[in-house]
Every structure is written in structure tokens, then in C-alpha cells.
Amino acid sequence: MNGTFVFVGNWTIKEGRVEDARKALSEHTDFVEINEPRLISFNFYIDEDTRRVTCVQVHPDADSMATHMQLISKHLSDGVEWMDTTELEQYYGQKSPRLAELLEPWSSPHVPERYLPEHLAGFTRSTVR
Fold first, then answer.
1. Is residue 32 within 8 Å of 70, Cβ to Cβ?
2. Quick one: pLDDT at residue 33?
């Protein structure tokens, strides 16, 4: 599939587990940085007061996101004990059939999802001038 693919995930951290989440997400980021050279951007943001964390990923295409899902499925097989609830998952860009298949086991009817498949306009810069 052509075109940038963006994922934004929002979670709530269990009471008393913020430090566990910080450590786990830092380790997860290191794993992703080493194993996914095509990924353009991968960032976590946290509001400790509300125990909310958001992940923003920018992939060059849906195939890169599919690779990410394959890798993290194996890497996260021990679970995410720090996570309380998934608040919202957002997907921007056309999902490939492979990506849709890899996302299926992670989907839940109880988690709101926003999916906008068509990229209307815009650009991505890999370096700042």
C-alpha cells in the first residue's frame, strides 16, 4: 500500500503502576527503534495525573505497520500488566489486507476505533530545514 500510515493509541494506566508503565514503554521503544528501521516516528506521551498514555506512530505505509504488529505481538506476549483500559485507537491511512488481519486479534467491540482510510492532502518531512 502506498502512503503514510498513522496510528494513535490511548490507554489508561492502572492505579499505582505509572512507574511500571514508564519502564515498560521505554524498553518497548528501544525494542522498536532497533527492530523497525522503516518506522518514521514512534513516541509515547503521558499525563501522570490522569494516568493516561498515548502512542503516536508514523509509518511510511501500511506494510510498515503490519511489520510492527508482527514484532510487538511476539515482544508483548507476556502482556502489559500496567495497562488498565484502552480508551481509543485511531488509524489514518489505507489498511492493507495483511494489516487488517494482524489487527483483528487486538480489536475489541468495547474499544472505540477511528479509521480514516483516505489521505486527503498533506506531506511528511523526514528532516527539518
1. no
2. 96
* Torsion sign, CA atoms 19, 81, 79, 97: negative
Distance set, CA 55 to CA 4, 16, 44, 121 (Å): 16, 20, 4, 23
Q: What is the pLDDT of residues 38-64, one digit of tens each?
A: 999 999 999 999 999 999 999 999 999
User: Rg of the chain over CA atoms, in angstroms?
Assistant: 15
CA dist., res. 16 & res. 61, Å (int):
37
Q: Closest by alpha carbon to 108, among 83, 129, 74, 127?
A: 83
Residue ranges for the chain with pLDDT beneath 70: 1-2, 75-79, 128-129
User: Which domains, ranges and CATH numbers included, belong to the chain?
Assistant: 5-116 (3.30.70.100)
113-116 vs 52-59, strand pairing mode: unpaired
10 Å Cβ neighbour count for 20? 15
Specify the amino acid at residue 22: R
Query: For residue 5, which amino acid is it?
Result: F
C-alpha cell of residue 95: 489498511
